[in-house]
Write a structure and sequence with these properties.
Blueprint: H1 3-28, H2 36-48, E1 54-55, E2 62-63, H3 66-77, H4 79-99, H5 108-134, H6 143-173, H7 177-185, H8 189-208, H9 211-252, H10 255-293, H11 303-319, E3 325-332, H12 335-342, H13 344-361, E4 367-372, E5 375-381, H14 386-400, E6 404-406, E7 409-411, E8 415-421, H15 429-446, E9 451-452, H16 455-472, E10 480-489, E11 495-506, E12 510-512, H17 514-523, H18 527-546, E13 556-560, H19 563-566, H20 570-582, E14 589-594, H21 595-600, H22 602-615, E15 618-624, H23 631-634, E16 641-644, H24 646-650, H25 660-671, E17 675-679, H26 684-692, E18 697-699, H27 709-718
Helix pairs in contact: 1-4, 1-5, 2-3, 2-4, 3-4, 3-8, 4-5, 5-6, 6-7, 6-8, 12-13, 13-14, 18-20
């Protein structure tokens, strides 16, 4: 077998062993090992070590800081971390050398990386075996032991690395293994000696000095290195100056010819500089033009380029109605949460990935642009109908929702997509982008796929804008008011408290239902100031009612809290301010949070609710059964009350049909030591079943309708019989359709 085949087999074996060593070390390295210090050493090995080798004067020896980093990692983080670092460091060195023009033979980069991994692994095995063989447990904190350890590491690493290098060199040139080792590899011992010494020095500084001392030492080492490099540079400059003087002296003997050549070279240099300057100018102009039309983060077209293209397409469509196009407006759902939780660096990478996925779906002639933030626009050319655009939009949605990993985080994103077909009514890019944006907002609300713009959507959008503007002034205008629905004990008919329900009486359009204006308030960031107003209004009113008689001293009021307010740290302060202003006891205020809201960010919700419990307020989980509660989270949530959604109460039959789920929910609440409130009680049959199942409290039209402040106060003075045993005005079994369902809508 010839040397080439033997060399190929040897390379393959080393690469296999190196890869196995690296993967075994990386797999067994615990996550906690990736500390800041270790990551800094890795960064040093990648970016600094390959560029900082020192060639000793009048010798062929070159000393690298790479070995010092590997030995230091042995001491600080163990052999597995050193194996990983050695592999990464050698790969970085090879890539740096290749960038500097060094040519590597076939498979030599993976061979070099693998050699580093193998000899570091062998050194690690010797490290492990030494105490077993000698019975001596070396302690690096002791100077004598540290010298032994570094000596063992340096010697073993030198022997193994030099032996492997000699094998490959002897196979290459045909020389004997011993001659090759003595000639080319023995000198590498200086690298290990210096590296071990430097590692020992740094280890001592880290473990027996302080951070300031270590920092000063590091600065001193860097300064010495820079000073050495500067000295070498000055020597070389001096030599160059002497050589230049000698050349000038020689040239003076040929003055005439040199003079002509001088002028010719100067002219050529001048022309060359002018050509380079012109080329740089042309390149800078090209770069400027590109930057003016492209997004710097994603490389997509920016808003200006998008507007230019749309303007051309609109003009072309007016001349030729067959030149159809469709505009898609997209934004990434909940992108703010990614920035807030994972950081803007990850957020930028998410935007870049989204941009690439958009480009993969559309045709080359189509245009993908980033408008700003998490908003994108896509121009689909030569599409005659919006339905075809919807097909493309669904492909985009399928692609963009595929999960991916970034920096160890599994990320899944979603998009809202609005579509605006070309239309003769459009005169400017802003108009068609406006309508695509309107369709996108409708898609966000509907949450069932892409939405196509229609004039009806524009009307609804303008109406929404009008309502939003009016809602901003509704409190000041006195248009908002509170209604109160009694909550009754089902065992004895006692009045427990009220649920506070918000009403908006618009000066022009009359009563606006909560399910219409509450989403507007949430999207317009008005829900928090409105909730703050509700807290102050209801607690102030409750304080007055508690003074009517002794039986009302423990009267409670329940206030609904939106998901946006729950995620805001101001909620705690807002509740405390309302309690302080009204002077009511905290336990008479109950905050209701829907099941879906509580489960949206369970860990954050748990923390906020625990802080609220510390204040003393009571907590209730609302609309239970409509969400997707995890029992593992539910038992950790500090709720006092569980509120059964009206849909489960409504579906209970006259003979107890479908009551099994009610029994399950009530039993679950009892096991979690929660009181149970059933909402939407509308018939005596429903009331009777809930009483038999042991439900604690109830509310609904059968017991009492929501009423305004004055009507509610009058009821408190009248002391009515809240349980309808034949003498209540609502004490008959009536269908749901007979009820004014608008009044029973919750506040949120």
């Amino acid at each position: 077998m010839n040397r080439e085949k033997i060399s190929s087999y040897a390379k393959a074996a080393v690469i296999f062993l190196g890869a196995a060593s690296f993967m075994a070390a990386a797999a067994s390295l615990p996550a906690r090992a990736y500390s800041l210090g270790y990551l800094l050493i890795i960064a040093f090995g990648i970016f600094v070590a390959p560029r900082t080798s020192i060639t000793l004067p009048r010798s062929k020896f070159a000393i690298s800081f790479a070995d010092a980093a590997i030995f230091l990692t042995f001491l600080l983080y163990g052999g597995r971390a050193a194996i990983v670092l050695a592999s990464i460091e050698m790969l970085a060195s090879c890539l740096y050398l290749r960038s500097q023009g060094f040519k590597f033979g076939n498979l030599m980069i993976p061979v070099n990386v693998s050699i580093n991994s193998v000899y570091t692994s062998c050194t690690f095995l010797i490290w492990i075996a030494y105490p077993m063989i000698t019975g001596v447990q070396l302690d690096p904190s002791k100077t004598r032991h540290l010298i032994y350890i570094l000596g063992i590491l340096a010697l073993s690493q030198f022997l193994i690395s030099s032996f492997l290098a000699a094998i490959f060199q002897s196979l290459k040139d045909g020389s004997s293994l011993w001659q090759t080792w003595v000639r080319d590899c023995f000198s590498s011992s200086m690298t290990q000696i210096v590296g071990a010494s430097l590692a020992g020095l740094i280890y001592k500084l880290i473990n027996f000095g302080d951070l300031i001392t270590a920092g000063i030492a590091f600065v001193a080492i860097v300064a010495a290195y820079i000073n050495y490099r500067q000295s070498i540079t000055e020597i070389n400059d001096a030599i160059a100056n002497v050589e230049e003087a000698e050349r000038q002296k020689a040239e003076t003997e040929r003055a005439r010819r040199r003079e002509a050549e001088k002028y010719a070279n100067e002219l050529s240099l001048s022309l060359d500089k002018e050509a380079r300057a012109n080329e740089a100018l042309r390149k800078s102009e090209k770069d400027f033009q590109y930057a003016a039309l492209h997004d710097s983060l994603t490389g997509l077209a920016n808003r200006k380029q998008l507007g230019d293209i749309l303007r051309q397409l609109i003009d072309r469509y007016k001349e030729d109605p067959s030149a159809n196009f469709q505009v898609l407006f997209l934004d990434i759902r909940s992108f703010k949460n990614i920035n807030d939780t994972l950081g803007h660096t990850i957020g930028d990478k998410v935007l870049s990935i989204a941009a690439k996925r958009f480009l993969r779906i559309v045709n080359p002639e189509d245009t993908v642009a980033r408008i700003g933030g998490d908003e994108f626009a896509i121009i689909l050319r030569d599409l005659s109908t919006a339905s075809k655009a919807q097909k493309v939009a669904r492909k985009i949605y399928k692609s963009i929702t595929q999960p991916f990993s970034l920096s160890g985080n599994k990320i899944s994103i979603d998009v809202n997509i609005g579509i605006a077909p070309c239309d003769a009514e459009y005169d400017t890019p802003e108009e068609i982008l406006r309508d695509a944006d309107i369709a996108m907002h409708f898609a966000k609300e509907r949450n069932d796929g892409p939405a196509v713009f229609t004039r009806e959507l524009r009307h609804r959008f303008l109406e929404r804008v009008r309502f939003e503007m009016d809602l901003r002034h509704a409190i000041d205008r006195g248009e908002l008011s509170m209604h109160y629905q009694p909550i009754i004990s089902l065992s004895d008919g006692r009045l427990i408290g009220f649920e506070a329900l918000l009403r908006w009486h618009h000066s022009e359009f009359g009563m606006i239902p909560p399910n219409k204006f509450i989403p507007i308030a949430e999207n317009a960031d008005l829900i928090q100031p409105i909730t703050v107003w509700i807290l102050h209004e209801t607690t102030k009113q409750l304080a007055e009612w508690q003074k009517i008689s002794a039986e009302y001293e423990d009267l409670m009021v329940s206030v609904n809290i939106s998901g946006k307010h729950l995620s805001n740290d101001d909620l705690i302060d807002d509740v405390e301010a309302a309690l302080e202003a009204s002077a009511i006891r905290p336990q008479t205020l109950k905050l209701e949070v829907t099941e879906s809201t509580a489960m949206e960010n369970a860990e954050h919700t748990i923390n906020v609710l625990k802080r609220l419990k510390q204040i003393g307020v009571q907590l209730s989980i609302d609309d239970f059964g409509t969400g997707y509660s995890s029992l593992s989270h539910l038992h950790r949530l500090p709720f006092d009350t569980l509120k059964i959604d009206r849909s489960f109460v409504y579906n209970v039959g006259e003979h107890g049909e479908n009551s099994g789920i009610l029994q399950t929910i009530i039993s679950l609440a009892k096991n979690l030591k929660m009181r149970v409130v059933a909402e939407g009680i509308e018939t005596e049959t429903q009331l009777s079943i809930l009483q038999n199942l042991g439900c604690d409290y109830g509310q609904g039209f059968l017991l009492a309708k929501p009423k305004g402040r004055d009507e509610t106060e009058q009821l408190l003075y009248e002391h009515p019989n809240w349980l309808p045993f034949g003498n209540n005005e609502t004490g008959t079994d009536r269908s749901r359709d007979e009820m004014n369902t608008d009044e029973s809508l919750p506040v949120f």
